[in-house]
Model the fold of this input.
Amino acid sequence: MKGTKYAELANLSEAEVLKQIADTRSRMTSLTFQKTIGQLDNHAQFRTLRRDIARMETSLRDRKPLAK
Done:
């Protein structure tokens, strides 16, 4: 499973990135349930999704001007 590239996020609007964050968090919740009942095969997906969320949040933060 490949993660989201930072360059791909630059082309998206803020609303699209927020939607992707929500979708990714819901996938993480789903994986948590699968892990609990023993159906999860690839535990590395957690790491990939966590990093994707961090990448998306960084992209959103970079779009806003710095307040002094």
Notes: The helical segments are 6-10, 14-37, 44-63.
